[in-house]
Amino acid sequence: MEEDSADPYLPYDGGGDTIPLQEISRRGSNYAMSNGGGAAGGVSSSTHLLDLLEEPIPGVGTYDDFHTIDWVREKCKDRERHRKINSKKKESAWEFTKSLYDAWSGWLVVTLTGLASGALAGLIDIAADWMNDLKEGVCLSAMWFNHEQCCWGSNETTFAERDKCPQWKTWAELILGQAEGPGSYIMNYFMYTYWALAFAFLAVCLVKVFAPYACGSGIPEIKTILSGFIIRGYLGKWTLMIKTITLVLAVASGLSLGKEGPLVHVACCCGNIFSYLFPKYSKNEAKKREVLSAASAAGVSVAFGAPIGGVLFSLEEVSYYFPLKTLWRSFFAALVAAFVLRSINPFGNSRLVLFYVEYHTPWYLFELFPFILLGVFGGLWGAFFIRANIAWCRRRKSTRFGKYPVLEVITVAAITAIVAFPNPYTRQNTSELIKELFTDCGPLESSQLCQYRSQMNGSQAYPEGSDAAATPGVYSAMWQLSLALIFKIVMTIFTFGLKVPSGLFIPSMAIGAIAGRIVGIAVEQLAYYHHDWFLFKEWCEVGADCITPGLYAMVGAAACLGGVTRMTVSLVVIVFELTGGLEYIVPLMAAVMTSKWVGDAFGREGIYEAHIRLNGYPFLDAKEEFTHTTLAREVMRPRRNDSPLAVLTQDDLTLGELQAIINETSYNGFPVIVSKESQRLVGFALRRDITIAIENARRKQEGIVLNSRVYFTQHAPTLPADSPRPLKLRSILDMSPFTVTDHTPMEIVVDIFRKLGLRQCLVTHNGRLLGIITKKDILRHMAQMANQDPESIMFN
Length: 796
Known about the structure:
The chain is mainly α. It has 3 domains: 112-152 and 160-344, Clc chloride channel (Orthogonal Bundle), CATH 1.10.3080; 365-440 and 466-605, Clc chloride channel, CATH 1.10.3080.10; 632-786, CBS-domain. The chain has 31 helices and 11 strands. The strands form 4 sheets. Strands 3-5-6 form a 3-stranded mixed sheet. The protein has a 3-stranded mixed sheet with strand order 4-7-8. It has a 3-stranded mixed sheet with strand order 9-10-11. The longest helix is centred in the first third of the chain and has 42 residues, at 93-134. The protein starts with 20 loop residues before the first helix and ends in an 11-residue tail after the last helix. The relative contact order is 0.11. Belongs to the chloride channel (TC 2.A.49) family. ClC-3/CLCN3 subfamily. Its main location: membrane. One of its GO terms (cellular component) is lysosomal membrane. Keywords: Antiport, ATP-binding, CBS domain, Cell membrane, Chloride, Endosome, Glycoprotein, Ion transport, Lysosome, Membrane, Nucleotide-binding, Repeat, Transmembrane, Transmembrane helix, Transport.
């Protein structure tokens, strides 16, 4: 039975009814990391021996691979470290310098991350452009120039054929010596396919051999890591190196993928590597995640030239814990990264991005209707893409198909190259395609999309670039764009999830931009032929420049990207930073919001959450709501028919019994109780910490044998005179584990887990220990409530 004399509100210590006062005060502020030394005098002689365990044990408080960090413990560790530095800083000038260095290390690490991200992004942009043009030909005057740079200095270019110059030779001209004719077309076709396959093969081989973690976009894993999961090597130097090289190869191979998502992964690798230079971050997993949040902002900043969009992306999409300090550091990292990229100037247009546009006409209220239609298209495409891509990835995981990643990449690359070459819109780099679709038709545009009749013969009195009748050139361009749209939709489903670095931003934007441009041209032609309709009559005069098809492409791109990722605020900011179209925020907001609503009608999760669930990572999404009326006792383990909970008693276990418990179970931690009879809770000890402490004690202390008594109390229990030396493990005990009662509603428990980032929570009834709830139990329970197989969702 429970002892009546002991105060139930004090942590029960097993040391009789009275607890030393200093012990109570010490427990109030301190967490289990301190060791509670300095007991009252007159204690049994074994405590007077030099207890080597009173100093912190190296390795205690670290984590294994594929485990979740304890946010509460990490925050307490950081506060303890901060107090120590503050108390010492007045002692000497050296300690004061150390405290300054500690305070500034956060800014230093994000500055280094920003510098490295900007430099790597510039390098990737330049290399990808050059290798992309290598599929079509080579610059004889300077091998390292891409097509555009090659023809910059040439005097022989004409306005109509601005991309033809004698210095640039296609492969057919080099090999066959002829530029035109069926032979040269077949030769160019063959070389294009050959280079595409070579790049794709090299990329997948490098990933497979050197860094398997370098595949995919990396954003689902980064979201999981930021929520407190540990994936060792995912942000390491090998992954960084291979990802940078293979990203260039994958983009140049012409596969339907972008480099924007992987750039976030690259930036996070930089942040992780630099955080090891500063003990404040290398020794604390929660602090390291603050650096990674800032790094992901820098990644988006260089991917899109959108520093503010990057900060919002980190806040809205990837970060789990985002205090105000991290917001400022993210802002600074994004600024540094954008500044470095701007000074490298990879595109030669003094802009951070390839598709900077300037539109000159305002938009009209009537146009909100087609913009909202584009939003509906974006939402439908997003929902369809997520379902199709997840079904394909699941098939890849569960069938033999997934065992041959190299063959799969080669097959997809071959199909992509063979189908893409005949169509000029699919042959070119996706970023170039988006640029062409965004661009407004002016007198300087030689694109087929801009062949309007008024510009063909100058005799008409229309101003340049007005809404004039489209020529057959525009209609054939529309056909080619429609085919390109179908091709992109199909290929992107099969490409995302291949074993090469693959982003989703650019292909989604390309699909939306194609659809938007087609809608834009259709509306423009309507306005031209039916300018007497009441819709156009009020604001569109004959021959005036009313409708900008490029704007429709921009809105469509935002809508499709929003449909796939379900981003809202950050997406609108990224797109208007990307294009400089500040006037067009309202159309963008309307389209993005519509696409989110339409997409959410078919399923609440975006592509990244869907991939997290497919891979079974233990990720509790803060956006999801838990609406079921279950109680903690229905979710906790052990269940009715299970074996009882594995517990440790505070002072009557021997070392042999403790090791037997550890060897027979696979649990990550054990509740410590007063005794088997009372079941009153003392604390919680982690399996890893126990094993490290035992090894450490065996190394440093003599006389520790299998029948040594193990105790978690402040003072050693009274033992017979001839018994072996006891082992004190109080220093690794978490004295304030989170507990809930068995009647706590699960929605509160889920909220506690989300907001505090817990790993486990103990369930008590009238102060007695009943069971335990872990993060995985909660995920299984949520899956069960959603009628999914709970075992299929767990990380294997």
